[in-house]
Structure formats: structure tokens, C-alpha cells
């Protein structure tokens, strides 16, 4: 399992873009995790699934609402990672009004979740292998803070907790 001090795994996530720009075409575009985190401070949070109750009502909105505070604390980007496809993450981004605030990144095959060791098996609920709920602060590709939730919990991966860690 990934821990503080480790580098993020080399992986490719997918991001749905609704407009062309900065080398991105409309539709799903690959995001090389190693290249995208180089020289940046990233507030990354992951969750079991798009459009699920806790994720939609609490987790994503907290990061959207605290966007300016994260920027003021030196965070370059906020990433939301979920085991969904890029089309679902794009639709969820529209629903959650994350544009320009939170990058909604798809881990469609759970490769990133598996590489971090932070998976959650929800096969019994018909959802298959998913990401555990967590948040982390990443500086230049290295994990500097990590908050992993217990099963069914939403207590330590919230925006306020990670924001406090960015200021510590």
C-alpha cells in the first residue's frame, strides 16, 4: 500500500474534455500521472464511484467549495479519481460544476487504485473492484499526506482535513 514518502505509481488516467485546448481534444484524453504531477502540488482525493450518495453530496462538493482556499495554500490542482470511465466522470463533472476547480479523472480499469494498493472490493454490491475513499497531498509526484477512510466512513478524507494539512 502506498504511504507518505512514496511516489505516485506510473499510470495513465483519463479525463473527459468538453472543449478543445492545450493539446486536449474533445472527449477522453490521457493524463500521464508522472508528467502531470511533476513540479506541482496536487490535492488528490479518490472515492468508490461517481454519482454515489456520499461522493456526490459531501466529498466532491467540499473540494469544489474550498478551491480558492487550496489555491491560497499553494495547491496547483485538485484531482478527483474514481474507478469509472471518462464519459461518466465528464457527466459527473458537469453535474457537480467542477469545471476549472477539480479535475475529474477516470481510472476505468482500476489500474491506479491497484497500483496504490488502495482498492475496495464492492463485487457483492454489483460494483466490482473500486477505489477506497482517501485523500492525499502530492508534491512533485511524492505523497506528503495520506488520509485513508475505514469501510463505509467519511471522516478523514474530506476537503477540510486535507486543507489543514496543506497549511501545516
From TrEMBL:
Residues 2-168 form the Thioredoxin domain. The keyword Oxidoreductase applies. Keywords: Antioxidant, Oxidoreductase, Peroxidase, Redox-active center. GO terms for biological process: cell redox homeostasis; cellular response to oxidative stress; hydrogen peroxide catabolic process. SUPFAM superfamilies: Thioredoxin-like. Belongs to the peroxiredoxin family. Prx5 subfamily. It comes from the Bacteria. It catalyses: a hydroperoxide + 2 glutathione = an alcohol + glutathione disulfide + H2O. Thiol-specific peroxidase that catalyzes the reduction of hydrogen peroxide and organic hydroperoxides to water and alcohols, respectively. Plays a role in cell protection against oxidative stress by detoxifying peroxides. This is Glutathione-dependent peroxiredoxin. It comes from Rhodoferax saidenbachensis. Its EC number is 1.11.1.27. The keyword Protein biosynthesis does not apply. The active site is at residue 55. It is an enzyme of class 1 (oxidoreductase). GO terms for molecular function: thioredoxin peroxidase activity. It holds the Pfam family Redoxin. One of its GO terms (cellular component) is cytoplasm.
